[in-house]
């Protein structure tokens, strides 16, 4: 039997994935949806590990989540400086 936080987790993950797939025009909106997915995974892992008292893994998970967010913002700033906006349509891998 699934508990309440399992349903909430599934709702969060599906809404984050839907947002990631549907909002492909701007890089910032895709980065925000990825951060929402990371936060929902953190919520689920916290609910599972709180009964085992193994919360050290959460610190590692949060560290990697913050590094992923900082890397995404760095790419966003670099893209805005080089192309002038964050539209995926103006960014091509063939251009330097």
Automatic annotation (TrEMBL):
<feature type="transmembrane region" description="Helical">
    <location>
        <begin position="6"/>
        <end position="22"/>
    </location>
</feature>
<keyword id="KW-0830">Ubiquinone</keyword>
<feature type="transmembrane region" description="Helical">
    <location>
        <begin position="34"/>
        <end position="53"/>
    </location>
</feature>
<keyword id="KW-0496">Mitochondrion</keyword>
<keyword id="KW-0472">Membrane</keyword>
<protein>
    <recommendedName>
        <fullName>NADH-ubiquinone oxidoreductase chain 4L</fullName>
        <ecNumber>7.1.1.2</ecNumber>
    </recommendedName>
</protein>
<keyword id="KW-0249">Electron transport</keyword>
<dbReference type="GO" id="GO:0016651">
    <property type="term" value="F:oxidoreductase activity, acting on NAD(P)H"/>
</dbReference>
<dbReference type="GO" id="GO:0042773">
    <property type="term" value="P:ATP synthesis coupled electron transport"/>
</dbReference>
<feature type="transmembrane region" description="Helical">
    <location>
        <begin position="59"/>
        <end position="80"/>
    </location>
</feature>
<dbReference type="GO" id="GO:0005743">
    <property type="term" value="C:mitochondrial inner membrane"/>
</dbReference>
<keyword id="KW-0520">NAD</keyword>
<dbReference type="InterPro" id="IPR039428">
    <property type="entry name" value="NUOK/Mnh_C1-like"/>
</dbReference>
<dbReference type="GO" id="GO:0030964">
    <property type="term" value="C:NADH dehydrogenase complex"/>
</dbReference>
<keyword id="KW-0999">Mitochondrion inner membrane</keyword>
<dbReference type="GO" id="GO:0008137">
    <property type="term" value="F:NADH dehydrogenase (ubiquinone) activity"/>
</dbReference>
<keyword id="KW-1133">Transmembrane helix</keyword>
<keyword id="KW-0813">Transport</keyword>
<dbReference type="Pfam" id="PF00420">
    <property type="entry name" value="Oxidored_q2"/>
</dbReference>
<comment type="similarity">
    <text>Belongs to the complex I subunit 4L family.</text>
</comment>
<dbReference type="InterPro" id="IPR001133">
    <property type="entry name" value="NADH_UbQ_OxRdtase_chain4L/K"/>
</dbReference>
<keyword id="KW-0812">Transmembrane</keyword>
<keyword id="KW-1278">Translocase</keyword>
<comment type="function">
    <text>Core subunit of the mitochondrial membrane respiratory chain NADH dehydrogenase (Complex I) which catalyzes electron transfer from NADH through the respiratory chain, using ubiquinone as an electron acceptor.</text>
</comment>
<keyword id="KW-0679">Respiratory chain</keyword>
